[in-house]
């Protein structure tokens, strides 16, 4: 008998994690999801999680059968100690050290540790994340090297061989839209447009061709440019 493959997806309610959910449901026998409430300025993404999650799983009967429970962890202390544009009403700009003010120090490192701790207790050693090195916002904790070293430490510290799957690591935003189309067709594209949230300011009052958002923050800019390139067939930029 083949052992059942189970994965735990770090799922925010945004575009990338929705694509990763479809990717995971296509490949694993069972998929659980975990989200993190770190008192983020765009907390509306947490409100979008459930509808997008149900929508993606509902695209195929096999996906619906594979989708397991969702977990939401309270990491609000991270927001308390982080003076950033994602945890405060601060301007989004480049800091003196060259990093964007939306960088939350340690965020992905903390997420990975908590996801692994949750997985440990549930017998899940495969984690999935939407981190992207090819088209990211300058965050050092999205780099492949950073993630590899973190997973090495987690595996050593928990005495279990944890792995991290990052299906979008070397995929452009346009390529991510194409991946969504390949995985779930126009129906998945529609779910991403209508149900997911990416805007750093948490604005869902404006509907653009590429979805909801303020239209000016870096997250909206990336999503919009990716959509434009995707529609023009330029998937590598």
Please outline the helices and strands.
Layout: E1 6-10, H1 15-27, E2 30-37, H2 44-57, H3 61-66, E3 67-74, H4 76-81, H5 107-122, E4 126-128, H6 144-158, E5 163-165, H7 173-195, E6 207-208, E7 211-212, H8 218-231
Parallel strand pairs: 1-2, 1-4, 2-3, 4-5
Antiparallel strand pairs: 6-7
Short account of what is shown:
It contains eight helices and seven strands. With 237 residues, it is α/β, with parallel strands linked by helices. The protein starts with 5 loop residues before the first strand and ends in a 6-residue tail after the last helix.
Task: Please provide a written account of the structure.
The chain is α/β, with parallel strands linked by helices and 237 residues long. The protein has a single domain (6-198), classed as Rossmann fold (3-Layer(aba) Sandwich). It is 45% helix and 13% strand. It contains 8 helices and 7 strands. The protein has helices at residues 15-27, 44-57, 61-66, 76-81, 107-122, 144-158, 173-195, 218-231, and strands spanning 6-10, 30-37, 67-74, 126-128, 163-165, 207-208, 211-212. The strands form 2 sheets. A 5-stranded parallel beta sheet has the order 3-2-1-4-5, sandwiched between helices. Helix 1 runs parallel beside helix 2.
């Amino acid at each position: 008998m083949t052992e059942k493959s189970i994965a735990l997806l770090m799922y925010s309610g945004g575009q990338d994690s929705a694509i990763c959910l479809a990717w995971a449901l296509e490949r694993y026998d069972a998929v659980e999801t975990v989200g993190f409430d770190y008192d983020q300025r765009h907390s509306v993404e947490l409100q979008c999680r459930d509808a997008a999650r149900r929508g993606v799983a509902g695209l195929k009967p096999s996906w619906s059968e594979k989708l397991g429970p969702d977990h939401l962890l309270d990491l609000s202390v991270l927001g308390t100690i982080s003076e950033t544009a994602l945890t405060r009403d601060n301007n989004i700009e480049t800091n003196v050290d060259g990093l964007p003010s939306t960088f939350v120090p340690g965020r992905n490192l903390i997420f990975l540790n908590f996801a692994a701790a949750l997985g440990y207790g549930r017998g899940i050693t495969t984690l999935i994340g939407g981190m992207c090195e090819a088209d990211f916002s300058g965050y050092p904790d999205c780099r492949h090297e950073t993630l590899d070293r973190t997973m090495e430490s987690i595996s050593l510290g928990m005495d279990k061989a944890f792995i991290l799957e990052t299906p979008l690591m070397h995929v452009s935003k346009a390529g991510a839209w194409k991946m969504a189309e390949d995985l779930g067709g126009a129906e998945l594209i529609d779910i991403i447009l209508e149900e997911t949230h990416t805007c750093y300011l948490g604005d869902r009052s404006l509907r653009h061709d590429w979805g909801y958002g303020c239209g000016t923050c870096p997250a909206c800019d990336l999503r919009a440019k990716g959509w434009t390139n995707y529609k023009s067939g330029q998937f590598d930029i």
